Every structure is written in C-alpha cells, then in structure tokens.
Amino acid sequence: MPPDEVLVACQDAALTFGEGPQAVVAVHGTTLEIGTDDRLAVVGPSGSGKSSLLHLLAGLEQPTSGMVTRSASLGPYDIGLIFQGDSLIPALSVVENAALPLVLAGRSEREARQAALAALDLVGAADLADRLPEEISGGQAQRVAAARVLAQAPRLILADEPTGRLDHATGAHVLDALLAAADHIGAALVVTTHDPGVAARLSVRRSMHDGRLLAPEEVS
C-alpha cells in the first residue's frame, strides 16, 4: 500500500446529539486526515469531544453534518477501537475476549487463541488469559481491551484514553506495545488522552476543547 494513503478523512464533520434547545454539539465542524504513517495524539479534558471524534473516525457514529470517508482498501476489521470504558463480554474469558474479533473474521479458534495470547503478552496480561472479566481489575481490563485490538492487526488503531485507568508504569508499557505494534503491522495510531506525557510520545499533537479540534502541533 502507498505510504501516504489516507485511511480516514473528515471534511467539516460535526456530531450533534439531540434537537432544538436540548441539542449538544459533541464535535464541531472538523477537517482531518489520518494517513497510514500517522501517530496522532488528541489531547483534552473529559467532555471535550475526544471520544465522539474517535467514534466518527471508527464509523460508530455518523456525522450530523459534513462527511467522513474511509479508504476503499479498508476491510471490516481494519479499524480497531480501544474503548475507554468497560467493553469485555462477561461470559467470555480474557483470552476468548481477545480472540473474538478474529473468530468473527473467520479465523480458526486455534489461530485466534494463539494471536490473542501473543497480544496479551505484549501488554503484560498473558497471566490473566483464563480469568473472567469479573475476576480482574479495571486497569487489567483496559490492557485486555488493548490486546483484543492488537490481535486483529488492524491498519488503523484508535485508542480512547488507553492509559487512563493504569498506573504510570503499566500505562507506559501499554503505550510502548501500541507504538511497537503500529510500527510492526504498519498501522496508523490515534490516541486520545488528557496526559501530556502520553501525548508527547506521539509525533503530532492536537488539542480538543468544547468539541473543537485545534491546529496540529508537530513534534520534531
């Protein structure tokens, strides 16, 4: 694939919830392109619209005005979203949760389990493989959610506050794994965070306030 391929593009895309006086604008008109080599941090406080922007990029929400377009080369599992909140299926073990996207994509259970175990090892959670979500902490669940996305080897990784529930050392380890995996599989990486230290690890930073994405700050 060409190194400068645009995977997802927003053209004056906005997202509003509700109507009339009760309407809330989560994302104001945003123009943004995510290319195959991008490492982008979107920085801002809770409620600034970061999660809504990721949902637009992922296709979980449709813009109420403007456009979001995705490359025709992207398959159904080529965009991986690491959710900020709880996203594990309670009835499945940790490794089954991590393997689920691969099983849904048609991989054999054996292959899916091997890939899931490798991804869990990347984020330091291999020892949790046979536990149920109720048996692990919130921070551990966040690592498993990251492993679930890494196991599917997407071309675009969208990570919503992936270190927000982790201590500093564990958060740094998970971010190391995301960056290394993105480099290894040739994926673009977009991380939302309120932590300047996390943002500093990515090559481009953009701030978001009150639903508005500000101009980029490139890191040399």
From TrEMBL:
Q: Name one GO molecular function term.
A: ATP hydrolysis activity
Name this polypeptide is given: ABC transporter ATP-binding protein
- Which Gene3D superfamilies does UniProt cross-reference here? P-loop containing nucleotide triphosphate hydrolases (3.40.50.300)
Show where the ABC transporter domain sits.
8-219
Record's GO cellular component, any one?
plasma membrane
Q: Which InterPro entries match?
A: AAA+_ATPase, ABC_transporter-like_ATP-bd, ABC_transpr_LolD-like, P-loop_NTPase
What's a Pfam family in this record? ABC_tran
* Organism of this sequence: Streptomyces alanosinicus
Q: Which UniProt keywords apply?
A: ATP-binding, Nucleotide-binding
Q: Which residues cross the membrane?
A: none
